[in-house]
Amino acid sequence: MDHNDAIQLQAAVKYVLGELSQVQRDEYEEHYFDCAECAVDIKALATFADTAREVLRQEKANQLAKEALPARGRWLHWFQPVVTVPAFAALLLIIAYQNTVTIPQAREGASSGAQILFNSHALRGVNTAGEEGRTLAIRPDEAFFLNFDFVPTRSFDNYIAQLEAPDGRVLLRSRIAGGNANQEAHLPIAAGMLHPGKYVLAFYGDTGGSGKIGRQNDAGRLPFAVEFRP
């Protein structure tokens, strides 16, 4: 998938909403690992989606509280729009994408995406041999991009990046094309995914494109720690 295909498909929106097929998702993940513009788009939409969900939850709580009170002005109820929460969230997301990404890019060119400022944290100076790590200071509700230099210790046609929690749980998996080796990569981290503790971003060779993890295909590890800041 190239950048024009991603834009026409509105892949960033569909990726955040989980509406891409598995094939499209894999192709888009391979693309955005090497595309700073799409990486910014995903982070913008993920942040907006988190905020929209919180607003909608609060609105629902307020509505339930109102319904518990004696009804007043019932004749106005027909005027209230009836939209399901998921559909409304999707609509907000598409509108946000068109106004913060698509339209500005059309007006200002591809460089406009870089002008949208969002948090990111880098694992610079951490080598894939796993010899050292660094500590990321994040807010508890922070969504961000984990930026790192993808320098695998072994050569494969494709790789799988796996974010592993302190207890060994797999929090996130993503595919990286072999052609993206020795380049900067960006991994979107959803708000609330990480908590204080030690983590490992591990890389494995994806032999035959099966998606199965084999320790014998270990291609490097990036250890890091997380701490919360106010």
Structure description:
There is one protein chain. This protein is an alpha/beta fold and 230 residues long. The protein has 2 domains: 3-115; 120-228, Immunoglobulin-like (Sandwich), CATH 2.60.40.1930. The strands form 2 sheets. Strands 2-8-7-4-5 form a 5-stranded mixed sheet. Strands 1-3-6 form a 3-stranded mixed sheet, covered by helices on one side. The chain has helices at 3-9, 11-17, 22-32, 36-67, 85-108, and strands at residues 120-122, 134-138, 144-150, 158-164, 170-177, 183-189, 197-205, 218-228. α2 crosses α4 and α4 (36-67) packs antiparallel against α5. The chain is built from 5 helices and 8 strands. Mean pLDDT is 72; it is low at 72-88 and 98-117.
Topology, element by element:
Layout (H helix, E strand, L loop, with lengths): L2 H7 L1 H7 L4 H11 L3 H32 L17 H24 L11 E3 L11 E5 L5 E7 L7 E7 L5 E8 L5 E7 L7 E9 L12 E11 L2
Parallel strand pairs: 1-3, 2-8
Antiparallel strand pairs: 3-6, 4-5, 4-7, 7-8
Helix pairs in contact: 2-4, 4-5
